[in-house]
């Protein structure tokens, strides 16, 4: 007997092929884990101290939070209307109509896949830096090399791939652990540093102290660069959509997962950032720290090695959950894209596979994992290109967010049928704020982040974005425009009628 979720999915053109066992906490947990304010603050706050200072970090968090909420809420209402694992590219296709839909879907899918890959590769290196920072707390003389950092990053990716391959119940438990670790961990870290810090910074330092150590003369531009700190953090909330076909009542729970993960992250991250800023003992010691992750110095100065160790362990759990969730979401896009023939016939036929027992898209999981590991090999030789991964991830993902929002605000402005969760009359305003913000953010991420610009600090993000956009465009112009027509219907009208009939029989018997 068909469930309402199965019927809803069939009307979008697809058969139920995954286990549908995730509840709201699991769906929410994936996006909340990928946003991960614990990872974001502990990885990126030190950059905000360079570009903007503590006051710049506070202003940046408030401004970027408000704008990101607009993006999150815009995606929420689209997800509520069309909860499918293809997510962004499926929405772009349907909202773009017959004329623009295939074109929009092609770019959205590839930007989403590439952005997701760069995102979890970046976090795998953060995991390695946290691991070696933890080692250095108790063994300060240990030699940290590029090879050691790269090996741990590769090991983290393999572990994420393994955990993504066992069973959906394992993933559910990981996401439950992640949610509670993030929530209680944020409170624990914040209270610990505030109560144990020998001295606390004044309100004037936190709210009025601006800094510009970027190497250029404009304080205002430094504050603008500081916006990258929260922008890097608020990433990956589209994951709720990508596991919608595994979520019960997905038109409600996947949509709720998006807006709840962003909203809670905004307030949890603000609390953690404020606690860290008030607990700083010596800004110069943090910026000149020998630790691979310089925020380790802040915790060590504030609360000593034992509590810093606990904080690092919490951060590592959250970081690992981050790449597990990222790989999970990315593999579902890979699977969905193959289901719709996005790779061409032969490759799509191979990748369109869910394991008969676990119902997991194992080929998509391991393609995602292996590609991530290949990208991570760059770290064995240099960290310069690796620094661009976060920016490429942010630009790729946010632009893939923008395309369906733009399609809804233009092509489908009069035809979009909202789901149960929607913005009502505010929808056009929120949509256009989101679009303008993403355009501005994309430009900001392509600017140099430190001066004078040299080969060692060059921002490679625009180069990589131009390269990948060129490859995607070439693929469309030379080949895909002739054969890719958008999402493929795998369910006939007769199949839908049978599903609806079985559901009615179930209701009547009940």
Automatic annotation (TrEMBL):
It comes from the Eukaryota. Signal peptide: none annotated. It holds the Pfam family AA_permease_2. One of its GO terms (molecular function) is transmembrane transporter activity. Keywords: Membrane, Transmembrane, Transmembrane helix, Transport. GO terms for cellular component: membrane. It is a multi-pass membrane protein. It is found in: Membrane. InterPro entries: AA/rel_permease1. The chain crosses the membrane at residues 21-41, 47-75, 104-127, 147-167, 179-198, 218-237, 258-278, 298-324, 365-386, 392-411, 432-454, 460-479. PANTHER family: AMINO-ACID PERMEASE BAT1, OS04G0435100 PROTEIN. This is Amino acid transporter. It comes from Gonapodya prolifera (strain JEL478).
């Amino acid at each position: 007997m068909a469930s309402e979720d199965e019927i809803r999915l069939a009307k979008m053109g697809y058969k139920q092929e995954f286990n549908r066992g995730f509840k709201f906490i699991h769906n929410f947990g994936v996006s909340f884990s990928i946003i991960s304010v614990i990872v974001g603050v502990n990885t990126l706050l030190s950059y905000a101290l360079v570009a903007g200072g503590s006051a710049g970090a506070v202003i940046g968090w408030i401004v970027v939070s408000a704008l990101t909420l607009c993006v999150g809420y815009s995606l929420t209402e689209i997800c509520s209307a069309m909860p499918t694992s293809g997510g962004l590219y499926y929405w772009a296709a349907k909202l773009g109509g017959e004329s623009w839909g295939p074109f929009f879907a092609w770019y959205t899918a590839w930007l989403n896949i590439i952005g997701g890959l760069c995102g979890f590769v970046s976090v795998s290196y953060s995991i390695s830096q946290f691991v070696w920072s933890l080692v250095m707390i108790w063994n300060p003389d240990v030699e940290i090399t590029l090879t050691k950092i790269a090996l741990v990053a590769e090991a983290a990716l393999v572990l994420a791939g393994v955990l993504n391959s066992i069973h959906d119940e394992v993933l559910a438990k990981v996401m439950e652990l992640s949610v509670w670790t993030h929530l209680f961990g944020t409170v624990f870290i914040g209270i610990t540093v505030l109560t144990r810090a020998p001295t606390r910074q004044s309100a004037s330092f936190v709210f009025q102290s601006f800094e510009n150590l970027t190497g250029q003369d404009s304080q205002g531009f430094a504050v603008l660069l500081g916006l990258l700190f929260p922008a890097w953090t608020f990433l990956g909330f589209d994951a709720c959509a990508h596991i919608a076909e595994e979520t019960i009542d997905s038109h409600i729970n996947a949509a709720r997962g998006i807006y709840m993960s962003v909203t809670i992250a905004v307030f949890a991250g603000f609390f953690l950032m404020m606690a860290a800023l008030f607990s700083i003992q010596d800004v110069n010691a943090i910026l000149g720290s020998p630790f691979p992750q310089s925020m380790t110095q802040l915790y060590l100065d504030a609360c000593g090695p034992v509590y810093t160790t606990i904080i690092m362990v919490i951060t590592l759990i959250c970081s690992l959950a981050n790449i597990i969730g990222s790989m999970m979401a990315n593999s579902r896009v890979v699977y969905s894209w193959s289901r719709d023939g996005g790779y061409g016939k032969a490759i799509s036929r191979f990748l369109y596979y869910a394991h008969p027992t676990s119902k997991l898209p194992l080929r998509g999981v391991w393609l995602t994992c292996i590609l991530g590991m290949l990208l991570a090999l760059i770290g064995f030789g240099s960290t310069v290109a690796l620094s661009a991964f976060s920016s490429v991830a942010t630009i790729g993902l946010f632009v893939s967010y923008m395309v369906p929002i733009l399609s809804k605000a233009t092509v489908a402005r009069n035809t979009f049928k909202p789901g149960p969760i929607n913005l009502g009359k505010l929808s056009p305003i929120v949509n256009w704020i989101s679009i303008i913000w993403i355009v501005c953010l994309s430009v900001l991420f392509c600017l140099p982040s430190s001066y004078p610009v040299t080969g060692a600090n060059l921002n490679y993000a625009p180069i990589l974005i131009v390269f990948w956009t060129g490859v995607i465009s070439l693929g469309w112009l030379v080949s895909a425009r002739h054969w890719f027509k958008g999402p493929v219907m795998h369910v006939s009208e007769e199949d839908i009628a049978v599903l609806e009939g079985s559901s009615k029989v179930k209701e009547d018997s009940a």
